[in-house]
Amino acid sequence: MKVKVIPVLEDNYMYLVIEEHTREAVAVDVAVPKRAHPLPGALCTRAWRPNTGSHLDHLHLPNSHPFQLLEIVGREGVSLTTVLTTHHHWDHARGNTELARLLPGLVVLGADERICALTRRLAHGEELRFGAIHVRCLLTPGHTSGHMSYFLWEDECLDPPAVFSGDALSVAGCGSCLETTAQQMYHSLVETLGTLPPETKVFCGHEHTLGNLEFAQKVEPCNNHVKAKLSWAKV
């Protein structure tokens, strides 16, 4: 399994997950189907390659070059068959309609009927399969009532599993609780996402790391873990 991380809009992340044997690809949170401008600074497209443990290959992209999801699909030589959408907000789902028009037969999946171009609604605990890649659908309400996170793994693979958490969970933070109760959000974070294997890699929906950690440091100025993480994030 290879994961291409594609920065889009102001601070969003879109993902392309590639099954390296069948060359099938799945996109996660298609905000922009054709134009994806890399963000300035340290953001980059990262390929998570199999059989290399937690290694991430970094490819820094020139800020002025418009990268396209479909160009990346073509360059990788894969067939994009499915979109997994975490929630209905425009910055995670707006590109679905145009992408479905460009790729007839594209399957768009999610847990909320408000998702653009949705072809089938998923249920909590449902499992999907893309070649060797297993996908477990985890309903994680909080940011929205129909927010779904996706837990991916491959059998007999040295790579750690991955979770695509959208706006349910980010680095040192989580999305605003907009449509549910704090108790529901707590359950999503602690009981659902918090019980995944500790080696799970988290692919979140936004780059809010610095802001989250700076806020955490103001709340807990003596927290050494926050200080260390903030230093790491600034590198």
TrEMBL record:
It comes from the Eukaryota. Keywords: Hydrolase, Metal-binding, Zinc. Residues 11-206 form the Metallo-beta-lactamase domain. GO terms for molecular function: hydroxyacylglutathione hydrolase activity; metal ion binding. The keyword Hydrolase applies. Its cofactor is Zn(2+). SUPFAM superfamilies: Metallo-hydrolase/oxidoreductase. The keyword Transferase does not apply. InterPro entries: Clx_II_MBL (IPR035680), Metallo-B-lactamas (IPR001279), RibonucZ/Hydroxyglut_hydro (IPR036866). Belongs to the metallo-beta-lactamase superfamily. Glyoxalase II family. This is Hydroxyacylglutathione hydrolase-like protein isoform X5. It comes from Balaenoptera musculus (Blue whale). The gene is HAGHL.
